[in-house]
Amino acid sequence: MVYTRIVSAKVRATFDRINDGDYRTMVDGLAPSFQYRFHGDHALGGVRTTRESMLRWWERVVRLLPGARFEVQDVLVNGGPWNTRIAVRSLVSGELPDGTRYENTVFQFMTLVWGRVSSVETVEDLQVLERALEAVAASGVEEARAAPIID
């Protein structure tokens, strides 16, 4: 029970750091060997397995959705430190260049092995995300239509 609370608090703190503009905290928490999958064939989709590609991905996220904030709703933790499964439900929101708001629900499923993230799978409503990316592209940011960053 104590371990579950510690992991949940660490996950919430990581999202707080991301909201403060520090995405490197998330990248620093990755295991030497990891897989990060974001569903969909869009500028933020794809599978990444290197620290370098994760940094490039986060830099793209910041360029395409500046000011996006995560509000963690639920963190579910199961297992021990040798194999911890985590499910996170959060709301992501931010203003788009056309003045409309981007609001979506993000589900992340993670695996921790001895305190390091070995896998992340991110799922959200792709129609909502793709409309947001199209609004960003229509404002002149062509990168919103770019191919996914993948390894």
Task: State the gist of this model.
This protein is an alpha+beta fold. It is built from four helices and six strands, in the order H-H-E-E-H-E-E-E-E-H.
Description:
The chain is of the alpha+beta class and 151 residues long. It has 4 helices and 6 strands; from the N terminus they run ααββαββββα. The chain has helices at residues 2-19, 24-28, 51-64, 126-138; strands at residues 30-38, 46-48, 69-78, 84-95, 101-113, 116-124. A 6-stranded mixed sheet has the order 2-1-6-5-4-3. The protein is globular and about 50 Å long. The N and C termini lie far apart (37 Å).
How would you describe this structure in keywords?
about 35% strand, 4 helices, six-stranded mixed beta sheet, about 150 residues, about 35% helix, alpha+beta
SSE topology:
Elements: H1 2-19, H2 24-28, E1 30-38, E2 46-48, H3 51-64, E3 69-78, E4 84-95, E5 101-113, E6 116-124, H4 126-138
Parallel strand pairs: 1-6
Antiparallel strand pairs: 1-2, 3-4, 4-5, 5-6
Q: Kindly state the mean pLDDT as a whole number?
A: 97
Q: How would you characterize the largest beta sheet?
A: 6 strands, mixed
Uncertain runs:
none
What portion of residues is helical?
A: 25-40%
